[in-house]
Amino acid sequence: MDFLLSYNNFKSSEFKNRYLNVTSLNKVYNLFSTKIIGYSVNKIPIKAISIGNGNIKILIWSQMHGNETTSTKALIDFIYFLNNNTYLNSCFTFKIIPILNPDGAETYSRFNANKIDLNRDAKKQSQPESKALIELYNTFKPDFCFNLHDQKTFYNINDLPAVTSFLSPSINKEKTINSIRKKSMGVIGYIYKNLQNHIPGKIGLYNDDFNLNCFGDYLQFLGTPTILFETGQDKNSYSREKSRKWISFSLYLSSICISNNCYDFESYKQIPVQSNLYCDLLLRNIKINELLQDIIIEYKEVLLNNTVIFVPIIKNIGFFDKIFAHKSIILDKNMKNIKFKISIGDDATKLLKYFKIYINL
Predict the structure, then answer these.
(1) Given 232, 248, 268, which residue is the final one in a domain?
(2) What is the C-alpha separation between 70 and 231, in angstroms, rounded?
(3) Is residue 359 part of a domain?
(4) Which of 63, 142, 268, 338 could cysteine-pair with 99, CB 3.0–4.6 Å?
(5) Element (H, E) at 6
(6) pLDDT by residue (tens digit) across 81-126?
(7) Is there a domain that residue 300 lies in?
(8) Structural domain includes residue 361
(9) What Å distances lie between residue 50 and 62, 80, 95, 140, CA to CA?
């Protein structure tokens, strides 16, 4: 089965909102062999899905940060693809945790109910969610770990947005490349080489500074090849449906790479490290006190009635040469002066209405 040609046939059409909690996934859990591996701080079950009966074992988790849902939707699409793929099911045994942080998912928060970032809890393992992941890791003894996240809209590669990003985490401060790390680099290299045919110039590497408190660094340090998948954004597509497709495809490519033993370490070395020079909205030629300036606006994601809305916030005011935007608006230099005070951190809704700029995401 060709993954991309058949994608719309197995894509989970019921998940379109950026908000995604455990209840939303009951249908998915009911379709597969599912086991409760632990409970969140608020006693919500953490569930793992088992698929396949092959010798190669892969542990995948998503929504470690409760407000990073696009990768979870991409993972669900991949799960549906696996359900009808005899070859991959015969090669692999997958243990998949779609939502590791149920409490954060419920409130659309990065943190768990104790206000802890689970991806800084790898060493301490102080939280029940962290303990559930480690216990599954210790009992399952995976050959690979896939750590799925969403990243902010401000990442870029040159003048293009970072639609997807990857990382083979470091195992020490010196960023040594041992056989374990080289293996995960080889998988990412294979993904990159194939993905470049579809989204050229929009694939980046995440920062590889070592932090043993992060689960990717910690598990690769323990000796398991681990890959960080980061879902970014393509221009003004805030639904991230395009990015979702490419992360799901990347999960497929990683499986093909591992099953066929076609690691591509050299291609990994060609992947550019992403920068953070993008913004959501850039307004140029704003006249403030008779002085033309630029205003950078960032969209804050807010949960309202189980729907994620985007609130424009003023992030910076000044003159910005090296900045790119998902949307740029150059105003007429002769436009009248702003009559009201604006400050960094303010809600920009009033400002946008003043210039008759309407956000339609």
Answers:
(1) 268
(2) 7
(3) no
(4) 63
(5) helix 3-10
(6) 999 899 999 999 999 999 999 999 999 999 999 999 999 999 999 9
(7) yes
(8) no
(9) 15, 12, 5, 11
